[in-house]
From TrEMBL:
Keyword set, alphabetical order: Secreted
Keyword Transcription appears in the UniProt entry: no
Chain residue ranges for the region called Disordered: 136-165
Protein name (Swiss-Prot/TrEMBL): Venom allergen 5-like isoform X2
Main subcellular localisation: secreted
SMART domains in the cross-refs: SCP
GO cellular component: extracellular region
Pfam families for the chain: CAP
PANTHER family xrefs: CYSTEINE-RICH SECRETORY PROTEIN-RELATED (PTHR10334)
Localization in the cell: Secreted
UniProt organism field: Trichoplusia ni
Keyword Secreted recorded: yes
SCP domain span: 1-131
């Protein structure tokens, strides 16, 4: 598994998109340097607690939670059918093995009594390419990897454990 590196150019792209506060993905997948095209995950959270500070892990956990809907294999167009209630795209982009650069930004806004947070993370090179697998597995069908706050001491790191199915 490759290490992920914080990328200032991707952070800047995320910050610029977050400032627009638009409820959709950035249609521009390029970056000024032209190194690669980008993937993107978005997360919103609102509360009436005026003193609330968002824990960024909430966004990561929300995206990662989609792993329960994903059966490993090449991505198909049907995986991204917006009419389906079971999403996988945030998880697969987050786990995409060739996406080794990440940059994120958080925008906080107040509207009336609402304290709103908007998280944008950009990944490079982009993932979620149809016909490709997000990552290679090992161990065949003898087990599956499980990660997460309940199973690992470092839920987004390299500490996973193999469990029998």
């Amino acid at each position: 598994m490759k290490s992920v590196v914080w990328d200032r150019e991707l952070r800047e792209k995320a910050a610029n998109w977050a400032k627009k506060n638009i409820d959709s993905h950035n249609p521009d997948e390029s970056i000024p340097s032209g190194r690669f095209f980008t993937g993107e995950n978005l997360y919103w959270y609102s509360t009436t607690d005026s003193k609330y500070n968002l824990n960024p892990d909430m966004a990561l956990e929300s995206w990662f939670s989609e792993h329960v809907n994903f059966t490993h294999g090449p991505l198909r167009k049907s995986h991204f059918d917006k009419s389906k209630s079971h999403k996988i795209g945030h998880y697969t982009q987050m786990a995409w093995s060739n996406s080794v650069y990440i940059g994120c930004a958080i925008l906080q806004t107040k509207k009336g009594e609402w304290n709103n947070f908007y998280v944008v993370c950009n990944y490079g090179p982009n993932g979620n390419n149809l016909g490709e697998e997000p990552y290679k597995t090992s161990g065949g069908s003898s087990g599956k990897l499980t990660c997460g706050a309940k199973d690992c001491s470092d839920p987004y790191g390299s500490k996973c454990k193999k469990t029998k199915t």
